[in-house]
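A quick aside before the break. I want you to see a complete sequence-to-structure record at least once, exactly as it would be stored in a machine-readable document. Don't worry about memorizing anything.
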Amino acid sequence: MSTITVTNLGKAYKLYPARWSRLAEWLLPGHKPRHQLKWALHDITFTVNPGEAVGIIGVNGAGKSTLLKIITGTTQPTTGSMHITGRVAALLELGMGFHPDFTGRQNVLMAGQLQNLTPHQIRDVMPAVENFAAIGDYIDQPVRVYSSGMQMRLAFAVATAVRPDILIVDEALAVGDAAFQRKCFQRIETFRAEGTTLLFVSHDVDTVKRLCGKAVFLDKGFMKMEGKAKDVCDAYEKHLFGGQAKRPVSVDSEAPKGHMDSSLSAASIEKQYGDGGACIASVQIEIDSGDIVNVIPEGVKFYIAYTVAFSRKCRGVCFGMMIKTVEGVPVYGTNTTGWANQQDFDCGQMTSVRFALEGNLAPGTYYLNVGVYCASSEGQLCLHRRIDCLIFCVNAVHNRITLGSANLFATPDIQTALPQR
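That is the input. The structure line, written in tokens, reads:
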């Protein structure tokens, strides 16, 4: 049973007025203390039950990281107690525990032992760690030459090489690129489905609401609220007076144009399945100019296009697509059922599919699924489906705040009342 029980937890740090005050206090223990206490946490109490996902939210300095350090045992509480059962994997400060002069492989060996893995277990998971981190030959280079993104990749790969009973994540996923963030969330989703308990710290309330059933709101070291994730996140946003979820950008003098960003590659995260009766190829996004893009200005109409080759006769064929967020939450999906008569295709035939979409996505990063199905005696049969086969971004082009995933292009009408005489 993997549980976390925090009871009346408090943490204070000693602040000394001068350089030698600490030494004087040690040498003269009977005298008046020469320090003041700075409390980072006050009387924190909550429980995380087996299989739960709990979010910790609060502004910088609220005490979130201090709380996680106590839970993971890297620092001790001043008052109260904390009890945890089960094997814990924690992603706190980026690369914490890595020795900069040792290679990535050597750090994996050390980190694995700190997770109570045997040398045999570490050798068994090493290929999976290398594959997930995807840093190539850098695995045998000193960590000091790694970028922050490479450190994040390796840290997450090591921490999650073996499914933990409890997974603790502290804002770490904000560092990776779009493909790696999706890869991390896929692994978190898998662990959650298998019963892993999740403690997730983030400033992104939308992510907390999607991943977590409960949340804890910390403010200046005090636990301001605990309860359902939506209620707590709403209270946090109210506390921030509706803080901005999207950063406004300046308007360009020229009309915005879509373009290709080579860094938005989905090769490392795509998954495919199906019975092989058809093959989906050349998935791409197009705009009215005919350009193939993966960065689209908000409000611009775009098209999802792909080709399908059939390797056997199929009847009642249906084509589909779905757009998701980085957490895997569906934003929009549709298929050709009800739009057109279901078609039949012979072996060797090819066809092209094109879905036209209005530009109603809010600025952000999105992931595309496409699929082709056919009728069978047992119902609809999946011929081929490609999951997270393409990453694309919607860029803001107006100096306006847009929250959520849908952009309905609201036009405010504010009328000033005339003063009464």
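Two observations worth writing down. The CA atoms of residues 326 and 374 lie 29 Å apart. The longest helix spans residues 178-193. We'll return to this after the break.
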